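seq/struct pair 1
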Amino acid sequence: MKKEAPPPENHERWLVSYADFITLLFAFFVVMFASSQTDKSRAKQVSEAVEKALKDGSSFSVPPAVAKILGGTVDDKGQGNAMMRGPGGAQHTPKESQQENLLELLPSLKRLTKDLEDDIKAGKLELRLEARGLVISLRESAFFPSGGDALDKGSYPTMKKLASVIGSLPNPIQLEGHTDSVPIHNSRFKSNWELSCARGIAVLDTLCDDFHLPYDRFSVVGRAETVPVDSNETPQGRARNRRVDVVIVNSLRIQPAEAVKAAVKK
């Protein structure tokens, strides 16, 4: 009896495994794409809501650096929050933490914008949201005499509203005195450094003595003419530079200090 020849070996079996692999890879990328689109959609909704809230208050501004952090999609420089975590939900980045801390200050910003609306329209103060926190700039012309550090009694209603908001928050407060570039030398102050420090202390004493806020929440800094917000070449610019900034510091800024305290206690 003639022996049958063995069937020829199939050298194409690898195609089956390869096809399965390609199918699974395709399914994986479809899922990744779908997840990314969902994240972008949700992030865009959050971004639009924040942008609308910011635009509703015409009395304050958000700098471009903060706007990029609050953006709904990743831009060409890799900024924005849409895909910062990725579909798998990675750990928070520093920018995401900063965004969340800034968002925590939005209710206070909206409340101050409403409560101080008349003062803002009158040009007595300005509100703005910065990376370091919420900044309330008290104009010299509305709060102090020229070259002096005695807080005008007529400003007390404004200071009361400000103290009410500060008292409802746990954040530390930094008081920064600023002047224009015109040198000062009178019987009380020898330089703009002394004047800027004295005005910061005057605001501190008013908030703590008259409105009973605790001193240990505050720090005072005198910056003289070193941090202008406008040009010192015009009267209008110099008027904006003469101010005391009340900074409600966001919690991201105090984390390192808190970490040091915790390490010392251990």
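seq/struct pair 2
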Amino acid sequence: MKGALIGRGRLAEVYAWGDDQALKLFYQGRSSTWVKNEASLSRIAFETGVNTPAVGEVIEVEGRHGILFERVDGIPMLAEMSAKPWILIRAARILAEEHASMHEKTVHNLPTQRQLMEQSILSASALSPAKQEAAINAVRQLPTGNKLCHGDFHPDNILMSTRGAVTIDWTTANMGNPLADLARSSLILQLGDLPPGTPAMTRRMVSAGRGLFHKTYLKHYFELRPENQEQFVAWWTPTVAARLGDGIPEEKEQLLSLLAL
């Protein structure tokens, strides 16, 4: 049965369920097909061996669709940094380590990164057709891949637990080029708005430490995976264009200014 509220995000609330599970209960309007797709993506990620909760059934509760997951006792990395700001550098290194480890996993049955990026770019109504075409051409000229990519990897999607850092929320999971996934995380870390209801103290902490956290994360990632940094830079423009397609009002002007540079 549905227990205490554990957390709340943009798309869903998370409740305790029984003794050892958690229910991710989506807000009204999310179809059963959409929720089943997230459950499938989460299951595929779990089967690669990445540190993420096991996936249970898709159920309906109080007229809303939800997914049962293995319950992990932990708190989001963002919340832990808010309570303990002195761990910022260590947390950034952990984030890099989890991302690098994820990018070692090969997959064959996830949506392709290229397809998802192109769809997002075409959804970016703030861009002219010419700029959409230019961004899509940039995506098509860059190497693809078959590595596990999260698509929304940031500190609020990492639970700090007794079993280590646990990655959650695989809604945008895909297979592709790790550098594109890294570019998206880099953009989120620099510009991403915090979830609604984030305490003022956390907002001040993030504002003060964002630059150092981002720099430490990228530096450690490239220490672990010495990739082509020129290619990483080349992913920047199409990543910004695709992020515009997510339709986050708080980021629109900053994203457009980046594309104007």
